[in-house]
Backbone:
């Protein structure tokens, strides 16, 4: 059965808790609402995918109160999914009884009835209560203080809609049949003109209407609610009021093929036209500044014309569309996956105002050259993720921030490039490095290491070398820096290495050796991240300074290497306090030093044991070593 999330107001939260009792009386199954004074709601008779189990109902079947096991209960609500997919009685007007206070989520979703009349006591209606309904009409008794109905002539039929008391907002609309239902046939409403007195169309008001193809909006409409026309047969949208608020998912999954928006409208929200597969072209008006998350995702757009006022394309804004080119004009921000899986996109241009490209913005696009104009400031990791046709990537001089490898999975990319004069990035051996802010040449033809390198940002996925030698001075391996650079079999990290970030060498299984010259194991930041693959941990040999072997064997992440060996780095092997010369200073060194003082035939590193510098090893050095361990010195 289709599930709905119950969104009643705070006053009904207690009523939505677990029921103490369920029972059947007459045609309906009821549930006692815990925490109330003998209140019940009608609930589904069955939990079948085919429906809630009710059919052929009449007004007389509904009762204001029912008695069970000697207790009388007040019927106050139509519960969630109570009449889901039920053919209640398409020739009848069903009158809900006085005493009904609320109609819960999905209560009449997909249900069919001639017309539904609501009582004066009704106070709360969940926005999804009438999704995909097939009603002929909706009316409310005149004395209801919260709701009313509006009678509207549409063509040659009379149409009734559920509204607020002031008749300015459509709460819900009949899904198919106007009130002239008859046994001889059904007249379906395909077109509607919104009455002039209506200023707002509520959330999900026409949700899933199976026949509605045309809606005429007037200039007085100030809001069209969330999912108001979701999954309808609507073919065109023409909004005349630039100040009209359009709710999230408003026209999503509909049959819209034409969109006309007014000059001056500033923003479209989330999912507004998501999965409108008949929408093939798009021209947005001047004045619009932002397209929201997934707004035009998964349409069938072959051409997109953005206005010069557009500054932000939010996440997935134009995802999964077949257009071949896009002119960003004055856009400053391209969000995550904004153009991901645009499988024909080969050309990107703009007026040079672009400042930030967020992660995965161009995922799986067939671009051969990454669009990175001068003026760009920030590139987020994986901006060109899995762009397998990409062969050129040049960082402009204005970029100050790249958060991680921007081109993981770009298998055709052999080398990164940096524009001459960049103070923030450089390349060495085809790899992208951050610098300390020094003005350096982007590449050195003679293979000399550029000055001031501080972090390895990215290794091209299509890199052809087997040995990755990170130069001295580099302290950080960035997120996913070498992920999927599968040609790498050996990694050499400098003595200055201090931190390796998540998935730095993820997906590489063929690494056979890792050499890290840092005497202190580099920090591996982040939890549950794959810095190296399991195959590398199991099969590769980790080579570290002789004095640091134990440190690596006990350090997070590094301890996962099954083969760790010490190497002579040519540095001073004498670490003060490392009496047993195992690469670390621990309580074991105190024990070894005491043993030596009791028996000088025991071999120790006397240079390491002389902590007070008097050229002798005495009990004073034991005291100094203990103080060192306690942090006194």
Residues:
């Amino acid at each position: 059965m289709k599930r709905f999330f119950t969104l009643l107001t705070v006053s009904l939260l207690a009523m939505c808790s677990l029921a103490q009792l369920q029972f059947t009386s007459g045609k309906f199954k009821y549930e006692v609402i815990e925490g109330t004074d003998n209140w019940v709601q009608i609930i589904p008779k069955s939990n079948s995918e085919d429906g809630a189990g009710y059919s052929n109902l009449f007004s007389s079947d509904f009762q204001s109160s029912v008695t069970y096991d000697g207790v009388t209960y007040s019927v106050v609500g139509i519960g969630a999914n109570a009449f889901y997919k039920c053919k209640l009685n398409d020739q009848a007007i069903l009158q809900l009884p006085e005493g009904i206070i609320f109609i819960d989520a999905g209560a009449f979703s997909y249900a069919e009835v001639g017309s539904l009349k609501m009582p004066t006591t009704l106070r709360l209606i969940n926005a999804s209560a009438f999704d995909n309904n097939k009603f002929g009409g909706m009316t409310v008794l005149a004395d209801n203080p919260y709701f009313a109905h509006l009678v509207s002539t549409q063509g040659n039929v009379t149409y009734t809609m559920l509204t607020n008391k002031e008749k300015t907002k459509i709460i819900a609309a009949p899904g198919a049949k106007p009130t002239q239902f008859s046994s001889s046939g059904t007249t379906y409403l395909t077109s509607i003109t919104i009455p002039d007195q209506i200023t707002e169309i509520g959330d999900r008001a026409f949700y899933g209407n199976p026949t509605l193809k045309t809606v005429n909006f007037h200039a007085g409409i100030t809001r069209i609610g969330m999912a108001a026309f979701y999954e309808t047969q609507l073919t065109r949208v023409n909004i005349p009021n630039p100040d009209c608020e359009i709710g999230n998912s408003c026209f999503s999954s509909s049959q819209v093929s034409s969109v006309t928006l007014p000059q001056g409208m500033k923003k479209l929200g989330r999912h507004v036209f998501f999965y409108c597969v008949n929408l093939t072209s798009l021209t947005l008006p001047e004045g619009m500044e932002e397209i929201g998350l997934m707004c035009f995702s998964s349409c069938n757009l072959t051409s997109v014309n953005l206005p010069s006022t557009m500054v932000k394309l939010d996440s997935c804004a134009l995802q999964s569309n077949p257009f071949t080119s896009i002119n960003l004009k004055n856009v400053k921000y391209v969000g995550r996956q904004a153009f991901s899986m645009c499988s024909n996109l080969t050309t990107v241009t703009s007026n040079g105002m672009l400042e930030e490209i967020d992660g995965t913005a161009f995922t799986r696009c067939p671009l051969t050259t990454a669009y990175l104009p001068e003026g760009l400031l920030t590139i987020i990791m994986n901006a060109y993720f899995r762009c397998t046709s990409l062969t050129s990537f040049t960082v402009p001089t204005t970029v100050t921030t790249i958060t991680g490898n921007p081109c993981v999975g770009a298998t055709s990319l052999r080398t990164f490039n940096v524009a001459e004069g960049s103070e923030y990035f450089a390349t060495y051996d085809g790899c992208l490095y951050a610098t300390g802010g020094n003005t350096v040449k982007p590449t050195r033809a003679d293979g000399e290491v550029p000055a001031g390198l501080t972090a390895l940002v990215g290794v091209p996925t299509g890199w052809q070398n087997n040995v990755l030698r990170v130069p001295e001075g580099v302290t950080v391996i960035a997120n996913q820096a070498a992920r999927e650079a599968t040609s790498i079999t050996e990694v050499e990290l400098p003595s200055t290495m201090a931190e390796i970030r998540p998935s730095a060498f993820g997906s590489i299984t063929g690494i056979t050796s890792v050499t890290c010259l840092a005497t202190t194991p580099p920090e591996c930041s982040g939890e549950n991240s794959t810095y190296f693959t399991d195959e590398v941990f199991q099969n590769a040999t980790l080579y570290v300074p002789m004095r640091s072997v134990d440190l690596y064997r006990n350090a997070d992440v590094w301890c996962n290497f099954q083969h760790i060996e010490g190497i002579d780095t040519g540095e001073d092997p004498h670490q003060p306090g490392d009496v047993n010369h195992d690469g670390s200073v621990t309580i074991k060194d105190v024990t070894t030093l005491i043993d030596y003082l009791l028996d000088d035939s025991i071999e120790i590193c006397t240079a390491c044991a002389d902590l007070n510098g008097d050229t002798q090893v005495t009990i004073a050095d034991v005291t100094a070593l203990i103080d060192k361990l306690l942090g006194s010195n």
